[in-house]
What we know:
heterodimer; A: mainly alpha; Helix Hairpins; Four Helix Bundle (Hemerythrin (Met), subunit A); 2 domains; 8 helices; B: mainly alpha; Cytochrome C Oxidase, Chain A; 20 helices; 68% helix; 0% strand; globular
Amino acid sequence: MSAHAPADGYYVPHGSYWPIIGSIALFLIAIGFANYLHDLANAQYIALLGVALLLVMIVGWFGSVIHESTHGFYNTQVDKSFRWGMGWFIFSEVMFFAAFFGALFYVRTFSVPWLGGAGDEVSTQAMLWPYFDAVWPLVYPPSDAHTLSQTAFDIPKATVPAWGLPALNTAILLSSGVTITWSHWGLLDKNRLQFIAGLFATVALGILFLSIQAYEYGHAIHELNLTLNSGVYGSLFYMLTGFHGLHVTLGALILTVVFFRALFGHFSEHQHFAFEAAAWYWHFVDVVWLGLFIFVYWL
Amino acid sequence: MSHATTASHDDLHAAPPRGLSRWLFTTNHKDIGTLYLLFSLLMFLVGGTMALVVRAELFQPGLQFVDPLFFNQMTTMHALIMIFGAVMPAFTGLANWLIPMMIGAPDMALPRMNNWSFWILPFAFTLLLSTLFMEGGAPAGGWTMYAPLSVQGPPSIDFLILAIHMMGISSIMGAINVIATILNLRAPGVTLMKMPLFVWTWLITAYLLIAVMPVLAGVVTMTLTDRHFGTSFFDAAGGGDPILFQHIFWFFGHPEVYILILPAFGIISQIIPTFARKPLFGYSSMVYATASIAFLSFIVWAHHMFTVGMPVAGQLFFMYSTMLIAVPTGVKVFNWVATMWRGAMTFETPMLFAIAFVFLFTIGGFSGLMLAIAPADYQYHDTYFVVAHFHYVLVPGAVFSIMAAAYFWLPKWTGHQYNETLGKIHFWLSAISVNITFFPQHFLGLAGMPRRIPDYSLQFAGFNEISSVGAFLFGLSQLLFVYIVIKTIRGGEPATAQVWEGARGLEWTVPSPAPYHTFATAPDNKAMSAAGMLPAAEAGH
């Protein structure tokens, strides 16, 4: 079966070897990573090989999709399928973050107050860690409270305040949401300069955000002694901001690819779903960051 | 019609490529559906063998065949393989085969991603099954992977976590594909409220999958970081809580239960009207009931946790919200019975399985209501009563629906009629043995026999013996199913396009076996009218 391009019929793509390569890549990543965790010599290289193969797969697979798209194989129905696909993918990402936000709310509302003896849990505190102070952000994990000799956890000197770099990062990410929209307007108005400049600014702001985040991590780990091992505050702080940072990295990569495709003139004011998908994704990481800023850093 | 469309029409009638590459690189929904179904059958046999190891050990009190650690590995792996390897891929396989044909589409909306969704699974299960041969053994803490056991467990837990990530990626992509197909590729005239109920139930199932598989991914990721990277999500010493694992897990786990049964509801809603020769009673109420069940599934999760310690207000909320599910489920059972009421019924194998489903699933539903009552659950929790309950909804529930579907659509898939006598023998053997296996487990549980333990007190011996005999009979009966399926694929009486006298729907308007590509152009009025999707007046084009 070969690819075909009906203007008013259905489009069914031809077979492809990229999916099976992707499966092998995921398999190598999983095997390599799991064995690496158990100190099998050189297992990390298996995982890295998997990552490399996955990258080759992504380039190859998207490459053929871009080729088919620029050669006019796709009709509006295919476009719509892509839109549904991207929309529901973003919803699945939202639910992934929901699990970690759920953990955050549970810890703040239930487990930490209960360990501190709230409600009916007086005996919980009395039996387990009677000196534990249930405060948030949690600097002294229950088992380390008032027992300075015990160091099962990294006790941070302080937590990262909201109204410093995080607030600046909020401004940067929100501005990048504005620049991507400005870029989109440029594309719709056939203003190529505005389109490309807006994209460039968005990617630049994304990289700036990531750099500041990396600096903040360095500061938090080395100067504040706030690590993944600082009890549940450190766990939630790094897992939430870390996964968000990974998603910003992915979003910035997607936007970079879109930027170069824009330079090659792949998009028209009528047909530019790759751009829109990247923009949707970018707005999604924006919104997640707002949740992080409010619930992890601020309140 | 433009030239391009004609060309595509010809292309779409091309024969499938030959050899292994057909299956590895395919974008064809029927090929991918077949792969899913065969994979599911294989996993059903592997997971079933593990169940038989469990039942062999439980035939008598004391330890006869396996040591307790291996026993625990078997219960854990049996559940993981049956849920993620057998039932879910079987439904996805059916979705692949049927949804495009039922809505008059040429294929799934995202065919290459469809291929990837399937081909992740063999790798994920290779990873999972490989843990059986590892130092420390396979995961043995139960499929629910509760902390702190899973945090302290052997290296195989990490392999399990990564295998679950792969299965999750597969399920999410499969579900996205189903939604995009249903919302975007329906033929003109196939409006939402004319879609066959199987399509509706899958639309809602796909939504559930996308909503909760990422939550499972999140919670096992927390387990992984607690194990290796110093986080304290599930460690009270660091301010976390092992119960937090259960909350997040069951926020996934309860909708998962409906992921395992909603497509079954869809299948039964296709089969009963066919053999009752009447349209489905209360079509729109079926749609709304399905949606209500899906909504409720998000707000009942803590009924799995009544005994862990929870504020009374929480217990009451989760008790009543759980009982509320009986209402839309009752609507469904009522509608199936009302469809049969005064129908011109015949009892071919698919119909037998469907009727057994209605009876036996309902028994599982009733025991679920008993478990929903929080104070009563203190007694039932973690006993064989729970095991009996969920096996009633999953074996004569989900698995019977899959078998009903296999018999119902095999003639459409292969072009051959299966052997009706053998099919009926398979049905009666299955229906009788499944009850011998699981009904006594209610009594064992009510008398206090705990689940997941290889030994038991002497007074439980009688019912355990009966249950084990039933399990082996059920297991052996499924070999007959495998034989029937293979025999039907290889040959048999040719099937007509409609196959069943009472069958309505677009898939019955195409020849049997269904051509490699169907509906390269949207179905015409004749097909739409034969499918019952057009009023008779409009049919005579």
